[in-house]
Amino acid sequence: xxxxxxxxxxxxxxxxxxxxxxxxxxxxxxxxxxxxxxxxxxxxxxxxxxxxxxxxxxxxxxxxxxxxxxxxxxxxxxxxxxxxxxxxxxxxxxxxxxxxxxxxxxxxxxxxxxxxxxxxxxxxxxxxxxxxxxxxxxxxxxxxxxxxxxxxxxxxxxxxxxxxxxxxxxxxxxxxxxxxxxxxxxxxxxxxxxxxxxxxxxxxxxxxxxxxxxxxxxxxxxxxxxxxxxxxxxxxxxxxxxxxxxxxxxxxxxxxxxxxxxxxxxxxxxxxxxxxxxxxxxxxxxxxxxxxxxxxxxxxxxxxxxxxxxxxxxxxxxxxxxxxxxxxxxxxxxxxxxxxxxxxxxxxxxxxxxxxxxxxxxxxxxxxxxxxxxxxx
Length: 377
Fold this sequence. Notes:
This protein is α/β, with parallel strands linked by helices and 377 residues long. The chain has helices spanning 2-29, 39-46, 63-68, 84-89, 105-114, 128-134, 147-157, 159-180, 228-294, 301-334, 358-368, 370-373, and strands spanning 33-37, 56-59, 69-70, 75-76, 96-100, 121-125, 140-141, 143-145, 185-196, 209-220, 343-345.
């Protein structure tokens, strides 16, 4: 009894020591090093390695946000995706991984996933792409394109316009065909005959046969057919004018759709930038609130209120990101592109006032709008 109670503490100590050794050994298997740097610190220390393959830079944001702008040579792995571990697997053999997101939340999620499976160096950019841009560091933007470039590409590649243009060309060919009836009709007929040189030889023995070609050519023209040709030509001209008006309408519709989507894209981007500014001001207000709470001059409820407001702003930011992607996709469809990308407008939202009053605008529309031209007033 004495011996059993005497060795009990030593058994506990032995078990604890063994557990500690196992933890240390497991830690040695994945000796991960985490380095926290601001965007400016990271750029100053690693700017010469951004274009090489010595670093794997992981952007943990959504694919929409990544397409909009990202650090040069970064790869996109959404921290919120279901197959995050599977996507990270391909980079576990690299000695250094750099992780960033908008600020820090997704970065921490990826770092947590790497614990226990990665034994290299992890560099966290603590202020994310937002701090990167605030420090005016270089980013890879989405495709910049002007309104004129989009319209030009749409007019050249849009499937609807191509089909409408082919209908106009077919109608024009119909006019040429109808006019052919007014011209002389020429028929050419060629006969191929065989002449035997030696009488009695069979026609099949071609070695002793001459070949003679007899052409027959005739020309003629209708004198009167009751005006049928004239009516056919008039009908072809009307069909051509109809198809041409339809083409002009489709042309105007495409230009209008491109312009509306383009200016809507600029507007949504401006809204997103306003939300970004609001988030910056909220960060400053939060720092001030925390100091006031520590000094006992403000309730901690203000910190919670700021957190709620930040979540609301981030939700609105995500909505603007989705709108940017949706409008960009629609513009790519109008341009006839197979691959859809996030577009970055090169123009500003500046519209000059129309130099017409209401009555003059109606007159201009009646004169130039192909849809209104078909309406009798």
